[in-house]
Amino acid sequence: MNRKTLAAALLCTVLPFAHAERLNYNVIEFAETAGVEIKRDTMTVQMRIFAEGKKREDVSREFVRKYDSVSKRAQQAGFKTELLYRNASPRYEYKNGKDIKNGWEESATLQIESRDFEALNRLIADSTRDASLENMSFSISQQQRQAAVDEVSKTALRRFRQRADVLAAELGKKGYKIVRLNFGHIGHNTTQPAAARMRSAAAAAEVASLAKAADVPTPETTQPGTEEVSITVQGSIQL
What is the arrangement of strands in the sheet containing 132-139, beginning at the earlier edge strand? Predict the structure, then answer.
């Protein structure tokens, strides 16, 4: 094989590989983040219902009365309710070196959720004789969270395109094409004040005292707190 034939053969071998391995030039990768602060719109309380006495039948009857009273109020108001825990057991006392059964007790924890803070606070006040407040917390409803994610996604994408326009113009390019976009990172930052989430027995007792005195807290004084929902758009453009 002469030199011309060998060169032609080598060229035919190399060209397909060169064509298959296209190199991407002027590719820029960057990210943009957008966030929005939203107020918690859902209030959740846990109410403890308790009854005790000497006879099991009397205790059970009193417990059912209290439970029905609280749950019926919640259902009539349209609140979402869930029974988290229920237990009935004998009660003992240690006497003369042994445990002696001296009664019976029954308890339950009912979780109640609503977006109407004022109405739920009123339920707490109306139920002080039948149940005690164990916990109060605030959160963002699924509808509001999804709406926030949609909003920040649009904002982040708009910022991404605006920055791409600036970069292309700065580098003297007439345009660009988006090569890749990733909306995978969604962040949630809690900015709730300490008074907004009451978990301790002291805080629960304070709220119960307010409710008992009919000084029911309004949505403004309840202080549900806020959260920031953010999203980061990562991507690359080719100029």
Answer: 80-95, 98-114, 42-53, 132-139
Structure confidence by residue, pLDDT tens digits, 48-86:
999 999 999 999 999 999 999 999 999 999 999 999 999
Q: Is the pTM value of this prediction over 0.90?
A: no
Annotate 26-57 with b (16+ C-beta within 10 A) or e (fewer). eebeeebbbbeebebbbbbbbbbbbbebeeee
Contact between 235 and 182 (Cβ < 8 Å): yes
Contact 46, 109 (CB under 8 A): yes
Identify whether the C-beta of residue 183 lies closer than 8 Å to the C-beta of residue 153: yes
